[in-house]
Amino acid sequence: MEREILTPANEAEWLGMRAKDVTSTEVSALFDASPYLTTYELYHRKIGALTEEARENDRMKWGKRLEAAIAEGVSEDLGL
C-alpha cells in the first residue's frame, strides 16, 4: 500500500476530511470510556444524523496556539 499525503487548505476542509474516521479523540467512546461521548452519539455523528458545533474554549484556544511548537519538538526528538 502506498502512503497518500493529504494537505487540506484550511481547518474546515481538514474537519471534513476526518468526519467519517474514528479519531483518537473519539475512540474511547467505542469502549464506553469517554465522559464526553457515548457510542450512540458517535455512531450517529458518523452516519451524519447528529452534528455538533464545538464552541472554542480556553483549552482549545491554547491547544491551537501550541500545536506548531509541539509538532516541531516531536519532529526534532524523532529526527524528522
Chart the SSEs and their pairings.
Elements: H1 11-17, H2 39-46, H3 58-78
Class based on secondary structure composition and strand pairing: mainly alpha
Order of H and E elements: HHH
- With helices defined by DSSP (H or I, 4 residues minimum), what is the helix count? 3
**Major beta sheet summary:** none
How helical, in percent, are the residues?
40-55%
Taking Cα atoms only, what radius of gyration do you get, to the nearest Å? 15 Å
Q: What is the CA–CA distance across the termini?
A: 22 Å
Apparent shape = globular
Q: Which residues sit in consecutive blocks of at least 5 with pLDDT less than 50?
A: none
Strand content: under 5%
Total beta-strand segments: 0
* Average of the residue pLDDT scores: 90
Keywords:
globular; 80 residues; 45% helix; single chain; mainly alpha
Explained architecture:
By secondary structure, the protein is mainly α. It has three helices and no strands. The longest helix is centred in the C-terminal third of the chain and has 21 residues, at 58-78. The protein is globular, with a radius of gyration of 15 Å. The model has no long low-confidence stretch (mean pLDDT 90).
